[in-house]
Amino acid sequence: MFDELLDPHDDEIPWGEDFEGEEVAQGTEGWDTDEGFVPDEKEKLKSYMELVGHWAIAED
After folding, report:
1. Which uninterrupted H or E stretch holds 42?
2. Total domain count for the chain?
3. Residue ranges of region Disordered (predicted)?
4. Residue 31 lies in a domain
5. How distant is the alpha carbon of residue 59 from its chain centre?
6. Which domain holds residue 44?
7. How far apart are CA 58 and CA 12, in angstroms?
């Protein structure tokens, strides 16, 4: 108990997967979709739009 670190090392931070099956760190900005998680990165967004086959920009 006393020998445990309060903050985990970077290599112990939990990871998830995006819609392409690639690892992403928990807390990464993005959107959950039917196909999976889409990180807020230009190349990932482009790949996702090509996958679903249509472009849409929606604002609340």
Report:
1. helix 42-52
2. 1
3. 1-37
4. yes
5. 21
6. 25-55
7. 36
